[in-house]
């Protein structure tokens, strides 16, 4: 634990290792000192297989990122699968532009998320939303992300603030976590460096294609995700805010490796840094 919160790893950070050796990678994550993991796909494994591998590795499968379309396809079945694994949370990892506030499918999206949240509650799971920076666009004077949280009861949707993307959007991540005190059971710890303005094609890191063409000026920009403690984030302040907001878990995530390290080495660097703050 750190600051009275459990420490987990979002497995998207080490997805290539998970795909090649699911159980062996989980065991290595446990050896690093992580207490739990957040899934981003199960790589063809059944819920029973995953539950067994978690038990063998000694990790808690605390949560999962599941796209909204997958949840809408069969909410009872998909949620039930993660319940069988032992997850207590499911997070919608992002929304396509047409589903965000100010866009055509937004009202339907509110209804969709509430319906998913109701089914999750029925099965003893809490639904969360994981932000990027694009939800901090202003719509009628308010952040789109705030409008979404206002439009859906906290009973059906909690926050999973990604502190990197909040900062990239120009929002103090600690203040934003505290804004949703009591609605923030889980916070994403993510560090970065961004010497210049936000570069084009940044969203390719999350699998969203950007068709913009980089200019020569763009080529010199260096946005880079970093192991926790190796970028610009005030991690001690974020941890304190998370604890005060009532977070039970903080989750390390690094979408792409950096600093010449492998994803596993980056995950180890993050937890080693966090252990210095205990």
Folded structure, characterized:
It contains 12 helices and 12 strands. The protein is an alpha/beta fold. It has one domain: Alpha-Beta Barrel (TIM Barrel). Helix 6 (106-122) links the parallel strand 4 (89-92) and strand 5. The N and C termini lie close together (8 Å).
Which features would summarize this protein structure in a list?
single chain; about 280 residues; alpha/beta; TIM Barrel; 12 helices; about 15% strand
- Give me the number of helical elements: 12
Give the N-terminus to C-terminus distance in angstroms.
8 Å
* Rg calculated over all Cα atoms: 18 Å
Percentage beta strand: 15-25%
Structural class: alpha/beta
Give the strand order, joined by hyphens, for the main sheet. Answer: 8-5-4-3-2-1-12-9
Shape: globular
Low-pLDDT residue intervals, each spanning 5 or more residues: 211-220
How many strands? Answer: 12
Mean pLDDT: 92
- Any idea of the CATH class? Alpha Beta
Number of domains: 1
Secondary-structure element string: EHHEHEHHEHEEEHEHHEEHEHEH
CATH topology: TIM Barrel
Bin the helical content: 40-55%
Helix and strand layout, with pairings?
Elements (H helix, E strand, L loop, with lengths): L5 E5 L4 H6 L1 H11 L3 E4 L7 H11 L2 E6 L2 H6 L1 H11 L3 E4 L13 H17 L3 E5 L7 E2 L2 E2 H8 L6 E3 L2 H6 L4 H7 L6 E4 L1 E3 L22 H5 L3 E3 L8 H11 L3 E4 L10 H13 L3
Quick summary of this structure?
The protein is of the alpha/beta class and 278 residues long. The protein is 40% helix and 16% strand.
